[in-house]
Amino acid sequence: MVGDFGAWLACVMMGLAGVVGTLGGRAYFARGLDLVQRDMAEKLRRLRAPTRNLRRYLILWLVAVTLTLVGFWLVLHNLVFGILICVFLISAPWYLLRRMAERHRQRIEDQLADAMVTLANAVRAGLSLAQSMEILAAQLPKPINAEFHQIVGEYKMGKPLERTLTEARDRLKSENFALFAAAMLASHESGGRLNETVERIAQSVLELQRLERKVMSETAQARKSAIYMGLAPAMILLVYYFVDPDNTTLLFTTTIGQILLAVAVVLNVIAYFWARLILNPDI
């Protein structure tokens, strides 16, 4: 009887602690959720994806992650792996979205030099800046043509060209496009030979791209080695399981073993991303 009352009292106290923690941390939770929503919305806009129901999806995802943690804790009695999997479930969507936005930005960077050359030729032929950008929107491949489609469409609807270019610069987060937009704005405001300026910028962008490709080719083998190093611990653990299955199983069935595995996974992930950061220098 006393033991049942103690267990009941412990459950009540844990429930009260959860309610108090939820009410006290509501402001911090909302602030953190707003920060994540702004960051993911910015990347989704860069990918030209809808962001209308993003907050609802984030809340549903957090609920699913919480249920996963509760399931590992109460059903499988494996809190350590539950926490590790929940951390992965929380960080994986953000990381994948970040990678997709970065690849989209890189594709635009690769197409930007050709866009500059096309614009310079159109301006040299006597077309206005707005007409030249219409040609870019019609002739360039995806995804950069969508950006110029939006710039031209907003300009035709009455938005000032300076504002459309500034919004595109802020949306793309590209240093080369920012330089390109600054040259167009300067020519639009004060005149000058836009074609010569844009051609010089295009030559600089091409040279930077050549250097980036050279660095990527020089470090390609090292990046593959980082992937192999990240997979090596899992392969070694599999080999140890066939050599000594009883002691290897203890890593998954005991609390201290689960903690050691969780720490090893975290350190392995940190080492992989650290290697990727070293092997991707900013030129």
Q: Descriptors for this entry?
A:
elongated; Receptor-associated Protein; mainly alpha; 12 helices
Question: Helix and strand layout, with pairings?
Answer:
Elements: H1 2-24, H2 26-46, H3 54-75, H4 79-124, H5 129-139, H6 144-156, H7 161-172, H8 175-190, H9 194-218, H10 220-243, H11 245-253, H12 255-278
Helix pairs in contact: 2-4, 3-4, 4-5, 4-9, 5-6, 6-7, 7-8, 8-9, 10-11, 10-12, 11-12
Terminal Cα span: 71 Å
- The number of distinct β-strands equals 0
Name given to the CATH architecture of the domain at 107-214: Up-down Bundle
- In helices, the fraction of residues equals over 70%
Q: Give start-end ranges of low-pLDDT stretches.
A: 9-14
Count of DSSP helices?
12
Order of helices and strands: HHHHHHHHHHHH
Instruction: Characterize the main sheet.
Output: none
Radius of gyration: 27 Å
Shape: elongated
Structural class: mainly alpha
CATH class of the domain at 107-214: Mainly Alpha
Strand residue content: under 5%
CATH superfamily of the domain at 107-214: Type II secretion system (T2SS), domain F
What is the mean pLDDT?
79
Write the CATH fold name of the domain at 107-214. Answer: Receptor-associated Protein
Provide a descriptive summary of the structure in words:
- This protein is an all-alpha fold.
- Among the domains are: 107-214, Up-down Bundle (Receptor-associated Protein), CATH 1.20.81.30; 219-283.
- It has helices at residues 2-24, 26-46, 54-75, 79-124, 129-139, 144-156, 161-172, 175-190, 194-218, 220-243, 245-253, 255-278.
- Helix 3 (54-75) runs antiparallel to helix 4 and helix 10 packs antiparallel against helix 12 (255-278).
- Residues 9-14 have low confidence and may be disordered.
